[in-house]
Amino acid sequence: MKLDIAVYRYNPDVDTKPYMQDYSLEIADGSDLMVLDVLLKLKEQDPSLAFRRSCREGVCGSDGMNMNGKNGLACITHVSSFNGKKLEIRPLPGMPVVRDLVVDLTQFYKQYEKIKPYLINDGKQPVREHLQSPEERAHLDGLYECIMCACCSTACPSFWWNPDKFVGPSGLLHAYRFLIDSRDTATEERLADLDDAYSVFRCHGIMNCVDVCPKGLNPTKAIGHIKSMLLNRAV
Amino acid sequence: MVTNAASFGRSGVHDFIMLRASAVILASYAVFLVVFAAVSSPLTYDVWHGLFTALPMKVFTLLALIALLIHAWIGVWQVLTDYVKNVSLRGVLQFVFVVTAFAYLAAGILIVWGV
After folding, report:
1. What's the predicted TM-score (pTM) here?
2. Are A111 and A61 members of one domain?
3. Model ipTM value
4. Is B16 on the interface with A (CB under 8 A)?
5. Hey, what CATH class is B12-113 in?
6. What is the mean pLDDT of residues B82-102?
7. Of B1, B78, B82, which is closest to A195 when you measure between CB atoms?
8. Is any Cβ of chain B less than 8 angstroms from the Cβ of A18?
9. Contact B3/A161, CB-based, under 8 Å?
10. How far is residue A224's CA from residue B115's CA, in Å, rounded to a whole number?
11. CB-facing half-sphere around the CA of A69: CA atoms within 13 A
């Protein structure tokens, strides 16, 4: 079976502007490759093609990219899911392109850093560890699983327009993970840091993040909880 | 925390509450007018004039005009801060939109209280 593919190419050292390069690949009938497998085969044809990948099983979050208009992880996206249509692969939208499918995620990580992604506990330190009941631990389900692939934040128009001010769905999912953690005592400080017109409230709930999350998480719901916490704190 | 001075509210929460409160008033006003027009058949000048002569309707209209000012101020600020990155241009546009919204409010007050 012949598979037609178009890949976004841009090498700032050589190209004046980005372009789409067409490729064609023969794949065995009945085989169901992942998009990452296709990219690896293309790289055998054309070693200049640049993209990130590591674990190839949807755990590391390295190969987030835009496939036929939707962000996702190339390693767990079946080529068959495009029903034989031409495969168009582009870098994650809205981010500066370093080369081809490799984007600069500095702004994304800065927002992650901003929410202080670690436990803060100024209480008496236990000898061994902070214990949680199963119920308290259950609050973290659906939050801690985020692998920071950036598929959600780069699918969010609010993050495209204000990546320096709006924390973005991924960062806010993590923020709520620490706000709701029974072992964390910095809830007030965390909420105070988020209480402005951009950090949280630029989310208008369009749920692009939920649509694209390869781990099936719901950042919009977490953001809704943060908004409720900010409201409860203010009124 | 990111600061902002050009929006209507004092904080993100304030903007959030004001947007929703003004939306409730505007939606109520719109629904009321549609229902009134639907049940007042025929809708003559006298019926329409009678509606706006009543004090509660004048107050309701004034509330809707103020809600429109607040809603437009915050909404336009959000749109402009998304799409207009040049600060000077954004400031001018924000000024024009807010002054226009105030002009609508002033005109609305004069019209409604002149009935």
Report:
1. 0.89
2. no
3. 0.81
4. yes
5. mainly alpha
6. 94
7. B1
8. no
9. no
10. 44
11. 4
